[in-house]
UniProtKB/TrEMBL annotation, chain A:
The keyword Transmembrane does not apply. This is ABC transporter ATP-binding protein. GO terms for molecular function: ATP binding. Coiled coil: none annotated. Involved in beta-(1-->2)glucan export. Transmembrane domains (TMD) form a pore in the inner membrane and the ATP-binding domain (NBD) is responsible for energy generation. Gene3D superfamilies: P-loop containing nucleotide triphosphate hydrolases. Residues 23-246 form the ABC transporter domain. Belongs to the ABC transporter superfamily. Keywords: ATP-binding, Nucleotide-binding, Transport. The keyword Cytoplasm does not apply.
Amino acid sequence: MASITLRDVCLDYPLYGAYDFSLKRRLLGRLLRQGSEMRTIRAIDNVSIEAKAGARIGLAGPNGSGKSTLLRLIAGVFPASSGQVAISGNIVPLLGLGAGVNLDFVAADNISLLLRISGRKPTPDILDEIWAFTELDDRMRRLPLRMFSSGMLMRVLFATATAFPADILLLDEWLSVVDENFSAKAEERLLKMVETAAIVIIASHDHGLLRRTCNSIINLDHGRIASQIPLDAPVPFPLELREKRA
Amino acid sequence: MSGAHFPMMTLNAPTRRPSVLHIFKVYYPDLFGGTLSVIRDICTGLKDTFTAAVLVCSRSGGAPKIVVNDVAVERVHSFGDVLSLPAAPTYPWRLWRRITEHDLLALHAPFPLADLVFAFGLGRGRPLVVHWHADIVTHAGLRFIVEPMMRRTLRRAAAIIVSDPVLVETTPLLQEFADKCHAVPFGVDVAKYDRPAVQPADVNARGRLVLACGRLVPYKGFDVLVRAAHSRNFEVWIVGEGREREHLEQLIRDYGLQDRVRLLGSVPESERVKLMRIADVFVMPSVTNAETFGLVQLEAMAAGRPVINTALDTGVPYVARDGIEAITVPPGDAPALADAIETLINDPDRRRRMGQAARHRAVTKYSTTAFREGVETVYRRVVAEEAIAAKDVGLSAPASRPHTAGGFVGAIRIAAALAWSDMRHRYVRSLLGPFWMSIQMAIMVGVLGSVIGHFSNAGAVARLPMLAASLTAWTFLNSVVLDATTALQGATSLIKDRALPPVIFLLQCTFRQGLFALHNATVPLILWLALTPRDISGAFVALPGLALFIVCTLALSLVLGALATRYRDIKPIIESSLTLAFLSSPIIWTSDMIDRSSPVMRLNPLTHLFAIWREPLVTGHVATTSLLYVLGCLAVLLLAAVVTVTHLRKAAFWI
């Protein structure tokens, strides 16, 4: 069963200045007994979150309030400095769509590679299914991605990233889907994914979106939980996918 | 590899008892002690519900598979103890092979050798219960290596069993997993100590016999007890054997206590029970938190003895409580210990009261039945949960689960896929792909061959295949290391946005350059086929050397790749060092062209790294010194690589 338990979790993000990347400087500093105190910023400050299957959590807060860092911490990118992190379930982090894309490769190869990166075996059936979802011409499968327009590229990436259901779905800034016609379909797919995922955590500036999709909203401020608002009736429809960037 | 279907099979065959694999460093008959008797009690106590097997290390070199008290014990050969750990290089591998044969794994911690297996994500298909016997106390300086591995093991464990709830509060590592911890106090078979005729404090008329039991190892604090006996008048008998014996004997002689302090050595259990019953005071002077519970004090309590124990941060002062069943003194404080002993010796009445209270507590709180049921409950629950989880997996559509085996195996698969795609990328950009590099190398071999031909008169043409092979190997090593220095920065978005483990991208370098090296290897192969009599026997002897070469390169790239990401000024140093190494090592020239005995030549690890596969190609055998030298370097590199991999968790901060 999928579950996320964060108990009093803190994350001290080390701030590496240009000099902190220098070994010579570090050794020299130790030799001269200069305070080599590493500067850190508390990106996550004493956060406790308990999420069981069915939780849809929205993370809100101004820029730099720790939304993305918290998602990455849950995804296992950053280790917590203190506190307890216990996560069970298969995590699908969709924090950036473009990761791992090679524009020189033809679309089909890119899809295969992206699937392998997320630990799936690309079978012809799965590839056909993904391509069908993009609604692009079949001949374009054999074209390198650099010839795609940004809208078409987004279709391919979105279709690949959302091809499999997840236990825990992490979304940073609602995925922007450009094409007008495609958005309804993408909306439906994403909604279905949100429905089948046991736990969804979405970070966004769009409060309206969070209210529609989530059953509780956590407001972050300077890495702390400023407030936690439970929303009683999650009304997933109608969902507007057009993202408003702050 | 997902292991999902194996537990299903056990569901289909409900008549079979589930089997438990107990994982520890040592077992009977190689050693006796508290932890071992706990494992033995679990094995025999649960024999109606679980089939038990034990996998341990042994120095004795006896039969690898024996049966002790109806329990199958498999002993992996160990070369002795290094840093309190058995040096059994094959243990992790053997453990990995055994895991799938059992339904439940019971790891008796601390045992870093087993943590190594679980830290690499192997054996995920089986539920794991950790019996937490003690924290790492000795060699605390190496903690930074071991702790991340122990954390991974605990994270993966379905349940953790401790002997006393206080351990969860006082052990930081356990605090992180407090919700998985179950306190199951050890039990003692009180009936064994029943002897109606014996009344507490009646046997020894003088009332001054102090008994202590345990392996003679530093943390037991027997030296404190010996010092406490100095200038007092009680007698001390210490039961047990161990590496501290000589030291204790010396101490006893130094204080002139030979007549009052005796080391009895190891005695059979029946004798020990008798000794427990005739002693007046039982002392457990342990000095570090390695003593988590003190099973032996529980035995003394069962024998109705008053106890003197120490104020450790573990279960010790909670098993026998100060003022009720025991007097608790500060650890390592000889005068306080001596005072406490004298207090009890001079007060027979108090001894009797404490002894009765101790026996009462042993009977009521620490019964073997309660221990057995506690462990059985945890085991059963964990096996049941696993069966349910397996059922869930079986019910959901098979395609909806990732096909990765998780952990290290998954990382290798992804790295291989990425490397394969890198190679294909070369072919996308040009028809010849990586063969362009091979052509470059062929030209380089031709030019260098003709130049070197002028240096030495002996058959320049005959040297060409070896020159080409050496250049291929060097290009591999050089490119892997150079690629590794920038690999993590190049993979920023995959690490940060897709949460892929950073180690993947360092492995990718070796895999990718390995594929390129296979392309380049056509040059030496063609030259070899064309220019030399085709004698293939040396090639087989060269294969292990070549494998060592690759493993060394991989380990080196892990270490340098991580370092160069953390400290950006290392990259230019690595670059210039590689150029220097290329020139100062026998790669384009051979050692017989110059003075063989030059110290730079002999100390240069690259000389030997090339020798271990080049010599067999030429002469058909490997020089032992080179082999040993390389194995030594490899051991250091592997250790550094393990440390690096555990620290790579922080790599996301660096990029």
